[in-house]
Structure formats: structure tokens, C-alpha cells
């Protein structure tokens, strides 16, 4: 009997355990796929749009030639010509496409240079004045294109009246006036007795212009608080045409034309 029991124990101990058999018969699990994060982060559409707005073709940048120590703009027909105390227009420059915009002026004379603007700017001014009138905003144009010679007369008169130190922050020197581009216009309203004054900025007309001029391609060229950049006093009456795309950026960022050229990328 003892021999039989021993044989049974030997036979049983030689069998494979049931647990091991079950593990071998279980189907293998498919490998788990883990998605790795993309190395390229999608750019939000708003950021993409801003990047597109902050690029500018090379033809819109000043082409400068130094003449007798003075930086002269050699592509003055450029609608984005940056005219300031550091870069000036050629003395003989006069736009070839000057026209008279169909807007009310503060004077009656018809065939004088200050009624004129370049055609693109004149059309935009007409649209701005029309939109203003629809909102019961009454605007008048005061002075558009101004020749180099006329600017000489105005500057000399201002120097005689105020002295040169004060004159240079109030009136541009000849060649350094935006009015010579044919893209600038001074405006006013009855609320300031048709005068050219900083008080225009506090009137309903001045406030409307400040909020809506960019919609027509204009900017307040010499805004308040930016005198250290433009080197001119605050002039809420002085509009400069730059086109809707650039005007929108300048308005939304509350910057000057000088600052715009610092943040935009040349392509």
C-alpha cells in the first residue's frame, strides 16, 4: 500500500500546475499606443492675423539718401512716407495726382494749393466727411497740400512770432512737413469757431474723428502723450492718410507712425 501511495504522489508532482496552464492559454493583449504631443503648437487665428498685419513690403519703407548731412526721402510718392524732423522730402517734390476733395472748407478761395490732396487721400476724406455728417458731426477742412516754398513762409513767420525754439515744435521746417506729401489735412469744426486748436480734441467732432478716422485710412499723426516721439505738440486736427490696414494697427495699438515702423517686419 505504501508503495502505491508513493507512486501516486510522484505522478501528481510531475503534472504542471493549473495556474501556469491558464496563464499560457490567455490571449496576449494588443500593445497600447501612446500619442506623443505634437512638436508644433497651433498658432491661434487671432495671433496669425496679427502677424500678417505686422508685415510690410519693402516698397513702403523710406529710401534714404544723405545729402549734405540731411536724410532725404528718395521715394516721396510712397503713401507711407515717414516724414519727420529726421527725414525730409526733396525741396522740389510735388505730387502729380493732386485733386480737390469734395468737402467743405473754411475759406472760399477755390484755386489755391491748400484745397488739394492726393487722389487716394482725397477720396478717403470725402468718405470720412460723409460718414461724419450722417452722425450729425460737422467737419471742415482747413489745409491740405502745402508746397516747400509755402512751408518756408509759414516757418519764418512762426519763428518771428514765437522764436525758433518754440516754432520748431509747432510748425515743421520746410521739407519736413507732411502737408507737402499731399496726404495730410488739417480739420476743424464750428464748436471751436473753425480754429486750429488743441481744444478740437475735446469737442464731439474731435472725439468722433479720433475714434473713427482709422476706418477711412487716417490717423491722428501727433497724438497726446507721444510728443517725445513725434517731436511735435499734440495736434488733434492733423490727419494723415496711411491706408486702412496700417491705420487700423496704429489705432488699435495706440502708437505713432514712428512706432509702427519699429514693430513691423519688412518683407
Automatic annotation (TrEMBL):
Classification via InterPro entries: DD-CPase-like, VanY-like_core_dom, VanY/YodJ_core_dom, Zn_M74/Hedgehog-like
Gene Ontology MF, one: serine-type D-Ala-D-Ala carboxypeptidase activity
Its EC number(s): 3.4.16.4
A Pfam cross-reference name: VanY
Disordered: annotated segments: 22-49
Regions that span the bilayer: none
Record protein name field: D-alanyl-D-alanine carboxypeptidase
Organism: Anoxybacillus tengchongensis
